[in-house]
Amino acid sequence: MKLNRRNFIGTGMAATGLLGLSGLPLRAQGKTLNVTAYGGVWEQAVRDCFVAPFEAKTGATATVSLGGPAQWLAQVEANPEAPPLDVLIMSPDLAVLAAESGLMDDFTVEKLPNLAHIPQEFTDACLGKGTYFDYGVGGITYNKQVVADPPRSFADFVERVAAGEFVASVPSIQYGPTTVFFLWALNNALGGDVENTDPFFEAMAKMKDNLVFWAGPNDFFNHLSSGEADLGIYFDGRTWNHVDEGVDWIDFINPSEGGAMTAVAIQKPKHASDLAWDYLNEVLDAGNQAKFAEILNYGVTNTQVQYSEKLAARVTPLSEAKLPPYADIARVRADWVDRWNREIGM
Amino acid sequence: MPDQASAQAPMSAALRRALLLAPALIFLAVFFVMPLVDNSARSFIAEDGGFTLSRYGAFLTDRFYLGVIAETVILSAVVTAVSVVIAYPVAYVLVRKAGRLSGLIVFLLIAPLLTSIIMRTFGWQVLFARRGLVNQWLVTDLGLLDAPLRWLNTPGLAIAALVHVLVPFAVLSIASVLQGVDRRLEEGALMLGASRFRTFLEVTLPLTTDGIGTGAILVFMIANGSFVTLVLLGGGFQTLPLLIYQQFNTTRDFALASTMSTVLLVIALACLWLQLRLVRRQGV
Fold first, then answer.
1. Same domain, yes or no, for A72 and A116?
2. pLDDT for position B126
3. Is the same domain home to A151 and A220?
4. In this structure, what is the dihedral angle of CA atoms A187, A193, A194, A198, given to the nearest 10 degrees?
5. How far is Cα A314 from Cα A295, in angstroms, rounded to an integer?
6. Do A213 and B153 touch (CB under 8 A)?
7. B238·A346 Cβ contact <8 A
8. Does one domain contain both A99 and A246?
């Protein structure tokens, strides 16, 4: 065959088309599941602890989409009849929103046998359309080389930062979970509630000269390591991850009032592949969760999980963490953010 | 028959041009114009599906949001002015004095752009932290200060970081125009008795207004939508891009985010029009 320009372009387009179509049969057979994960060590943990056993048991494959809950939910909202994602990792407040929107399937023990070992309150918190599988606690992380006597409660933290004893790094309003693990937790510890956030904003006004704000978790660590801040509000699991990486100068305190439990929810969009149930059951499995906890240094929710001695000393027990009223917070969150913008700035 | 053939030739040339342009135009239409229209349309659709201007009414009459708009424009204008003032001498040296070193200077200008903006911003954090390198010099090494200064989260540092990112765009725009300036005009002015400074002010500078204008527009537009630097270095600025991100990421109020982004787009276009008018008024 003589290869002229027309033939070349035609052949190229046909080849491109075939390559593009090559992914479709798998999807059409329902043998590929598209699950979600945060990036970094999280992604690898999801692959090792949940994707691998799922693939071994079902013979199906799972692809992992990286990103964040707001983006994933928007993707499902854009195409609810044929959602591009089969399993969603969600923040608790967005899980409530997704459940209320009627976009998610009900979680039952019939579909998910391992759900029987997850405290019912976690499924209830997702309105029965999802559950929590992993959690961290927001508390006080500090530089041991600089802070010899750290504050042990939120109230003490506020007083001593306001007095100028420390410079504190606290989450900015640009970070999604801030409204829960910082605003709600501090407000609650200082006597406020969902309807009254005055205690929080009054505390922030007192501390404002000695605060710096972090926009993302890595930012917090930079503040501490560069000496910009002495201590701050951060997560237990992330603190222990730094310790495991060789950072021996930081430590974590769960404030005496109880830090906010910052959970990670899982949900299945309606019309997603039924294979998602098999995958979700693996996510809720005690053995898989124990392995996941060991990698990430975060607590998990299956009551049958046995932590290693090292992890047991680190994971904040559920009894010592406060479960925020996520559904109530979701209702007023926009007002809280607006007040923050006007009184504190971004 | 020959007449018919010659009549068809321009048609086919036009068609060929259209075909060559088509991929770029289709790409722009699908991935830029359509999402932009869809995004803006969202701000005009009421919850019941009808047409509404209420979001714009609420947004443009709220003093807080008006303050945010003003802050966005002022920040961009300040960054633009500082960038152009810094860029002009660099461009001048690059074109007129650098000689063989011009390649090296261009490389040094562009090299930072090859690094992630996040890494560059973290660099500012490391240098200017309370116990960072700069404070260490000032307090410990040189003994000029008793206590470290708070640099981070100050407006000055945020502006400096933005200028650092954007100066290369201004330098390259000015340099390309400066290169085309006819040196004989400057020599003529000098020969007629003008000082070097007056020659620069009355000959060189007016002839490079186009480059200054292009650089200023480029820097202004990028500063107008800047996000990462302000998120990481703070500075206390409240700008529209930060608020838009917040509406998508935290409150999920997509309609308000669309309203804000449409307002930001209109501001950018208005400033672009104004700057183009100013540049053209210079007669270049």
1. yes
2. 84
3. yes
4. -60
5. 13
6. yes
7. yes
8. no
pLDDT for the residue B263: 94
User: Are B192 and B274 within 8 A, CB to CB?
Assistant: no
Q: Are both A246 and A126 inside the same structural domain?
A: no
User: Cα(A264)–Cα(A324) distance, rounded to whole angstroms?
Assistant: 13
Cβ separation A212–B152 shorter than 8 A: yes
Report d(CA B140, CA B146) in Å as an integer: 9
Q: A71 near A303, Cβ under 8 Å?
A: no
B245 has a chain A CB within 8 A of its CB? yes
Do A162 and A235 sit in the same domain of this protein? yes
Taking the C-alpha atoms of residue A178 and residue B253, their distance in angstroms, rounded to an integer, is 17
Dig out the tokens for A336 from the structure: 């809280």
One domain for residues A336 and A213: yes
Q: Which of A117, A51, A116 is nearest to A87 (CA)?
A: A51
Report the Cα A206 to chain-centroid distance in Å. 30
Nearest chain B residue to A70, by CA? B249
For chain A, how big is the Rg over CA atoms in Å? Answer: 23
Q: Which domain holds residue A280?
A: 5-135+262-320
Asked if B130's CB is within 8 angstroms of A333's CB, the reply is no
Whether the predicted pLDDT of B102 surpasses 60 = yes
* pLDDT(B6) > 70: no
**Do A72 and A213 fall into the same domain?**
no
CATH number at residue A18: 3.40.190.10
- The ipTM, to two decimals, is 0.74
d(CA A2, CA A8): 10
d(CA B213, CA B276): 7
Q: How far apart are CA A204 and CA A195, in angstroms?
A: 18
CA atoms within 13 A on the CB side of A218: 9
- A263, A92 contact by CB (below 8 A): yes
Cα separation values, B60 from A276, A297, B226, B254, Å: 46, 47, 22, 17
The answer to whether residues A255 and A154 touch, using CB atoms and an 8 Å cutoff, is: yes
pLDDT at A123: 96
What does DSSP say about strands A299-300 and A168-171: parallel, antiparallel, or unpaired?
Answer: unpaired
List the single residue in A172, A213, A228 with the smallest CB-CB distance to B129.
A228
Q: Are A154 and A187 in contact (CB under 8 A)?
A: no
Rounded Cα distance, A102 and A73, in Å: 12
Nearest to A62 by CA among A321, A331, A272, A285: A272
Closest to A109 measured CA to CA, from A125, A140, A131, A80: A131
Q: A209 and A282: one domain?
A: no
Domain count, chain A: 2
Q: Which residues of B touch A345 (CB under 8 A)?
A: 236, 238
- Express each pLDDT in B237-267 by its tens digit: 889 999 998 888 888 888 999 999 999 999 8
Cα–Cα distance between B253 and A333 in angstroms, integer? 11
| CA–CA min distance A223, chain B (Å) | 8
Amino acid B167: pLDDT: 93
Supply φ then ψ for residue A305, to 5 degrees: -70, 135
